[in-house]
Specification:
The complex is a heterodimer of chains A (about 180) and B (about 230). By secondary structure, chain A is α/β, with parallel strands linked by helices. Chain A has helices at about 10-20, 40-45, 60-70, 80-85, 105-110, 135-150, and strands spanning about 1-5, 30, 35, 45-50, 120-125, 150-155, 170. Chain A has a single domain (about 1-140, about 150-170), classed as Rossmann fold, CATH 3.40.50. Chain A is globular and about 45 Å long. Chain B has one domain. In chain B, helix 1 (about 5-25) packs across helix 6, helix 2 packs antiparallel against helix 3 and helix 6 (about 95-125) packs across helix 9 (about 200-225). The longest helix of chain B has 30 residues, at about 95-125. The two termini of chain B are about 30 Å apart.
């Protein structure tokens, strides 16, 4: 599902409410019929959130960032991370502090998580920002696999996704003063 | 991907990351210590190097300097995590946030409090403290500095979202440090009279236990408010 709308319409605010960081003034967010505020731990297990601020520490290397993220999410650290780094185009850069990488490469470090999780719901705020064309195509490929495995994706983007995703739903927010 | 829930894995991962970052920017460890050292050397210069007087005011000086130098590092405790979005990832983890916070505070104490405790013999020499008072000072700092980290982290959590939160945090936190200051300095003073000061230490210990159990919950709520 794509969340669309002009700048300032409240796309990010809505994503943050859905991810449980902000509490809505009115209404509730339900996950499998249960309020996420009361059952946050249960919801958090099925949620992968990558926001505008990606949660990548600029002093640590790409590898350290990914390993830290796996540990705080409770995943087993047995994956072949080097193969994955190579796949996403960061090979040879795994020991460089992230602040030395380009914006697109930093974004790739954050997006590595998409290959390393078992969450059903992905909430992504502008995932294509700073990525080159090949990166965008590669990411869309990953989206398709996730959807085929029964996952759900909620994202904001200004890109046109209709050609790649047949059953894409779009919710458009209007800008109101 | 298989998930295995291990609280120890989370605790050590968070602790290790903060220590790793601190050792990469060593100024973070060294600067508060230098500040502490400079403040302490200013007193003999300003008041005069009379040994009796220095020994009398030494507990107060050491403790006030300790309060101020822990304040220096507190500002950074959650700031980077807040700005790069790591805090959101920690909240959205399926682990309880208070445990994460506990690990961060412990790491903060290892970086700022522990070196202070280890350097106390040097300060005791500068201020002409006798052995009895030195032992009392080390013990009070050992119990007191973690307490300062826990109380201060509540203020740091509340102010992390603000642009210039540093001063506000000091105003929030320093009054809460007063009980620690009173019992710690009273313990050292009692020791200089060669009396038993285990009562004051017991109170500091009790305050520390309460802080370990309750502060992480308060800090977590403060962080959630700051992030939303």
């Amino acid at each position: 599902m794509q969340l669309a709308g002009p700048n300032g319409a409240g796309k990010t605010s809505l994503l943050r409410i859905i991810a449980g960081f902000s509490v809505p003034d009115e209404g509730d967010v339900l996950w499998q019929g249960k309020s996420i505020i009361k059952n946050y731990d249960e919801f958090a297990r099925e949620l992968l959130f990558i926001g505008h601020k990606t949660g990548v520490n600029s002093q640590l290397t790409a590898l350290e960032n990914v390993q830290f993220w796996l540990q705080i999410q409770g995943y087993n650290d047995t994956q072949d991370l080097y193969a994955l780094l190579a796949k996403i185009g960061l090979v040879g850069l795994e020991d460089v502090p992230v602040r030395m990488l380009s914006a697109g490469q930093q974004r790739r470090v954050a997006l590595l998580r998409l290959w390393l999780n078992s969450a059903k719901l992905w909430v992504l705020d502008e995932p294509f920002t700073a990525l080159d064309k090949a990166g965008v195509a590669f990411l869309q490929q990953r989206f398709i696999t996730h959807l085929e495995q029964g996952g759900a994706i909620l994202l904001t983007t200004h890109q046109d996704l209709t050609t790649h995703f047949n059953d894409l739903q779009t919710v458009t927010l209007e800008y109101r003063h | 991907m298989i998930r295995q829930h291990s609280y120890w894995q989370l605790f050590s991962a968070v602790c290790k990351k903060d220590l790793q970052l601190a050792f990469r920017q060593r100024a973070e460890i060294v600067n508060p210590l230098l500040f502490f050292l400079i403040v302490i050397t200013l007193f003999p210069l300003a008041i005069g190097p009379e040994p009796g007087l220095l020994a009398r005011i030494a507990p107060g000086i050491i403790w006030v300097a300790a309060l101020l130098s822990t304040m220096l590092g507190l500002d950074k405790l959650f700031r980077d995590d807040y700005h790069d979005g790591s805090l959101e990832q920690l909240i959205a983890s399926s682990y309880p946030l208070p445990l994460t916070v506990l690990a961060k505070v412990v790491a903060h104490w290892i970086i700022t409090g522990l070196p202070l405790v280890l350097m106390t013999p040097l300060f005791a020499l500068l201020l002409n403290l006798d052995t009895n008072a030195l032992i009392a000072t080390v013990l009070t700092l050992l119990l007191g500095t973690p307490l300062l980290s826990f109380i201060g982290a509540i203020g740091a959590g509340l102010t992390v979202g603000l642009q210039k939160g540093g001063i506000l945090m000091s105003l929030l936190v320093l009054p809460l440090y007063i009980p620690v200051l009173i019992f710690a300095t009273s313990a050292i003073e009692t020791s200089t009279m060669s009396l038993d000061y285990s009562g004051q230490l017991a109170i500091l210990g009790a305050m520390l236990v309460v802080a370990i159990l309750s502060a992480p919950i308060a800090i977590s709520s403060a962080l959630k408010v700051s992030v939303s």
